[in-house]
Amino acid sequence: MIDEQAAPVFDPHSATGRPIRTPKTAELVARKLRRMIVDGELGDGDHLPHEAELMEHFAVSRPTLREAVRVLESERLVEVRRGSRSGARVCVPGPEVVARPASLLLELSNATVEDVFVAREAVEPAAARILAENGTEEAFDELERIVDEETPAAYAADNLGVAAALFHLRMVQLSGNATLALIAGMLHEIFERHTSSVTRHRSRTDAETYEANYRLFIRSQRRLLKLLRVRDGEGAFAHWQEHMIVARSLVIEGHLAVEVRDLLD
Known about the structure:
The longest helix has 28 residues, at 178-205. The chain is mostly helical and 265 residues long. Helix 4 crosses helix 8 (178-205), helix 7 runs antiparallel to helix 8 (178-205) and helix 8 runs antiparallel to helix 9. It has helices spanning 25-38, 51-58, 62-74, 96-108, 113-134, 137-156, 160-174, 178-205, 207-229, 233-251, 260-264, and strands at residues 78-80, 88-90.
């Protein structure tokens, strides 16, 4: 049971001497439901129990319960279809939930494409090392499939930037480090848009350089795959660090001052 009469209290021993607000009942209910989602008791696509059941379980009123659900809806943890009898459905969010706000903050801070590439250089080599040391053969097979099938197909379709961005993203995600994967997911759209724009322009204005860069990229990917399969973490780190530096010089040459907001408009 949750006390719906919770009110602000004053803690004379608090560091600031300011009143400490006791969470509203709806916030406490939302917290408990959120924990059920985090712990896997409620999975992606599951519907929350019916209102009557939740009201009885938490001993709260219908308005309080609905306010709690709205809190979860604002966090994009649940989806509520108005008028539906099935109630709220759990939606486990992906990186896109934070990607747009993060992109907006980058726009407001006048961040450049170079800023994004430098940040990615701090993320991806570390992920390559983790992947080499802890990755599965299935993960390596997936990356190899991107190199063998998706990258050549994208090159032929004048869409190499998309395949390049996918390889970079999946490499980090497959490392299994949730924090690095989240950062990579936040930066993915910016990286993909810029890389696609640059490679598409080069394919039409300098076909020879475009082909040379493509072959260089393929060789580098295959080198990484070899290092991953022999579990050479330090080698994978060093190679991908060098790859990222070279890629930055190729992809942002002449675009150093391009701001993130110019890509996302």
